[in-house]
Amino acid sequence: MGQVVVITGLADGMGRETAKLLAAAGDTIAGFDMDAAGIASLQTELDGLSPSPGKTHHLVPLNILDRPGILRFRDEVLAKYTRVDTVLSNVGIGFFGPFEEIDLEAARRCLEINVIGAAAIFQAFVPAMRRQKGGKLIAMSSLVGQVPFPFESIYAASKFAIEGMVMSFRYELAPFGIRVALIEPAQVSTTFAAKIHTLPPEGSPYRERARRFIARDDELIKTAPTPLQAARRIVEVIHRDRPPFHNQVDFMSTFFLFLNRFLPVRLRDMILLNHMDIKEA
């Protein structure tokens, strides 16, 4: 019997590809996204992919900031399927800019979506998982949740917070058979980064280094894993009874996490700055 998997942020990118692979494998998908058109088209795709005739998936348009809406969604899912086996928190937005120049209200929104959004969907389903004595909570983190990159201070803060939150509550939930895991990609070839890469204004002391950073990132994205390749790795984690806590989807994240664990900080930082072409002359 397949799993019932809840996925947030599944209208496009990795979330969409993950949902399609799971549906094709016989799992049931319940999820939401703000993109109503994307949700509608995905619903049609998933219904056509399911190997079991008559299996229905539950997708709704919903904003991760809508707390009452999340609780209504939870109630609908549990009423329809009676259980949930895995929750994948995939909603997130990027944030780019020199720390000195960032808009703190925009930063607050990023933290609200990325951190409290993940907390809200997990918290909603923990009681049901505790009663059924099992389940998996999987958070979409990032390489920058352990290795912060320049010009990504707020985004890195959100991913550090997710990792700390999940590391903490796994101890609380383990006695109830609830497993937790992190997905930590460096880059996936989507438009995620392009949407946030804006140069600092003319006259900014950070403009030239930020320009070099963006140019280097644009080059790296050309050889990054596709959403489908990343989704295959995510599905592997979802289908494991006891997934590893840390899970990477690409060589870059594996490489830099290795450096982070075993190299002196000064040497690691030198490699990172050279890699992103922002070392001072």
Summary?
The chain has 281 residues and is of the alpha/beta class. The chain is 51% helix and 12% strand.
Key structural traits:
single chain
What does this 3D model show about the protein?
- This protein has 281 residues and is an alpha/beta fold.
- It contains nine helices and seven strands; from the N terminus they run βαβαβαβαβαβααβαα.
- The chain has helices at 13-24, 36-49, 67-81, 104-132, 153-173, 207-221, 227-239, 251-262, 265-275, and strands at 4-8, 28-33, 58-61, 86-89, 135-140, 178-183, 246-247.
- The protein has a seven-stranded parallel beta sheet, with helices on both faces.
- It starts with a strand and ends in a 6-residue tail after the last helix.
- The mean pLDDT is 91.
Overall helicity? 40-55%
Strand order, main sheet: write it out. 3-2-1-4-5-6-7
**Rg, Cα atoms, Å:** 19 Å
How many separate helices? 9
The percent range for strand residues is 5-15%
Distance between the termini: 59 Å
Write the layout of secondary structure elements.
Layout: E1 4-8, H1 13-24, E2 28-33, H2 36-49, E3 58-61, H3 67-81, E4 86-89, H4 104-132, E5 135-140, H5 153-173, E6 178-183, H6 207-221, H7 227-239, E7 246-247, H8 251-262, H9 265-275
Parallel strand pairs: 1-2, 1-4, 2-3, 4-5, 5-6, 6-7
